[in-house]
Amino acid sequence: MPDTLAAMKQPIVIFDPGVPELAVMTDLRPVFDVRTGALTTLERIAISPGITLAGLIVPEHLAELTRQDHPGVPVNDPGALPDRFTLVNGSWAHCTKPLPDLAPDQALTEPELDQQACPLVCANISRSQLAAVLAGEFSSLRVEQYQAEEHRQLIARPWHVRAMQDAVLLNDLKHIISTHLRADNQPVDVDMLPPLWIAPDASIHESVIFDSASGPIVVESGVTIRPGVIIVGPVYIGHSSTINEHALIKSNTALGPHCKVAGEVGGSIFQGFSNKSHAGHLGDSWVGSWVNLGADTVNSNLLNTYASVVCKALPNNRSERTNLTFLGSIIGDHVKTAIGTRIMTGSIIHTGAMHAATSPISGTISPFSWTTDAGTRPFRISKFIEIATTVMARRGIEPTQAYLQRLTEIHDNCHASL
Q1: What CATH number has the domain bearing residue 275?
Q2: CA 129, CA 125: separation in Å to the nearest integer?
Q3: Same domain, 375 and 279
Q4: Most exposed: 26, 329, 336, 375, by fewest CB within 10 Å?
Q5: Residues 205 and 288 in one domain
Q6: Same domain for 170 and 114
Q7: Cα–Cα distance list, 92 to 2, 26, 163, 244 (Å)
Q8: DSSP for 137-177?
Q9: pLDDT tens across 138-157, in order?
Q10: Are residues 142 and 182 located together in one domain of the fold?
């Protein structure tokens, strides 16, 4: 019997369960568009042979942004969906693993934990069942637990991405290398893939050192790597990114497109379009889009006690043990830090925050908070949009009205708490 996602012959519909605790990553994108390895979860599903993406379902506040990012794909339009399809949870970042070919009305769930917002991994359903299943009503389905080696398959907290990204990244890199080889009409042996793939148009200085002994390295089209850089695999460098002089890019790092990175970076994911252009350490972190980390911004990714890191996903949430010894920072979109900023272990910095104080960043920082030595106040939304528009224009992107409206919504929703 077929035993992989690719073996599913019917169309795929991916849904975002709308987990509030993932806001630092999902304020401006659905969960399946979060970079969880070298790829986003949606990219990871869509590249599987034989997959037909029939639709996307997201929280309504993300619907217009999702339509803009995925033109031609029905979004929140049940009438456009086929009569029967496989519904896949967009939080399933570990979708590289074997998945049985589902029979009609069969569903797989991850064992429900206290932290798990929606246990459904996937289900073979009809269009008439969709509303009930999305509401958490599974009585019409034959529910089985998804069996996998990894304890967690679905992300329900920001730090879950860090917990699974090493395995996910390694699988992504192997797939990307094999895909590039096929595109170049080269023979592909999945057991003998080359450990290094560099796009023909990438600009690599002769002094750059690639160390692939610990894992493969992929350098995509348009990348520039400056003199004296050391890259230790497994690593992914997304298209049109730049690695500045003497940077050390350590294992289990994935840089999305159009990033500028320098200093020491390891065990981290950059969503894309973000800058860490100067010296400073960043370890075991996730960085959103349009982030700028000032020169000598550094973070801690290990407690002095070597204990499990404790975090709060949202500013007003309770603290939770992550069961991770190494966890640096989760940094939302449009975050900015001043020169010499220190970020403490397990800090979560929400969308639009700006830190320019001599004190370190610690704990969970509210969206659109402007922090200086004089205290913390709300970032004025008109000024924020002016800056964001200027920053995005530098990369040739003009924010849409829907994007600016979403930023304003986030600002207004959190304003009272600042």
Answers
A1: 2.160.10.10
A2: 6
A3: yes
A4: 375
A5: yes
A6: no
A7: 20, 14, 13, 34
A8: --TTSEEEEPP-SSS--B--STHHHHHHHHHHHHHHHHHHH
A9: 999 999 988 766 667 899 99
A10: no
CB 163: neighbour CB atoms within 10 A?
18
Omega of the bond leading into 234 within 30 degrees of 0 (cis) = yes
- In terms of domains, do 149 and 214 share one? no
Alpha carbon distance 314, 312 (integer Å): 5
Task: Kindly report the three-state secondary structure assignment for every residue of 295-357.
Answer: CCCEECCECCCCCCCEECCCCCCCCEECCCCECCEEECCCCEECCCCEECCCEEECCCCEEEC
> Does the pLDDT of residue 193 top 90, yes or no?
no
Residue 283 belongs to what domain range?
160-415
Query: Rounded to 5, what percent of the chain is helix, strand, coil?
Result: 20, 25, 50
Same domain, 208 and 168: yes
Give me the numbers of helices (H) and strands (E) for the chain, helices first please: 7, 34
What string of DSSP letters covers 240-300? T-EE-TT-EE-SSEEE-TT-EE-SEEES-EEEES-EE-SS-EEES-EEEES-EEPTT-EE-
**Residue-wise pLDDT tens digits, 256-274:** 999 999 999 999 999 999 9
Q: How many residues does the chain have?
A: 418
